[in-house]
Amino acid sequence: MDIYILLPAPEVAADLAKRLKSRRLARNLTQAGLAARSGVPLGTLKKFERTGAISLVSFVRLLVALGEQAGLERLMETDNRDSLTLDQILSTPKARKRGRIT
What we know:
- The protein has helices spanning 9-26, 31-38, 42-51, 56-66, 69-75, 86-91.
- By secondary structure, it is mainly α.
- The radius of gyration is 19 Å and the shape is elongated.
């Protein structure tokens, strides 16, 4: 998931939509079938796969219906020592690229 650090939010959302669609197709599910299993309206699922726009609750419902909720659980683990907080990222001083000649 480190690739997401540098991507704008709409690109991250589009990538998540692409991954979810890939998993849906791997399970040989239609959009209507996944919508019925998850309780997410068909129009919402279609829009998500097309644009990446969806509510968090609907996204979680889709993941659960596909049996992919373990990814969310890993994302929210409390003992994730390899990840930096946003404060840590922002407070890291930038290295100077070139010295100034006077």
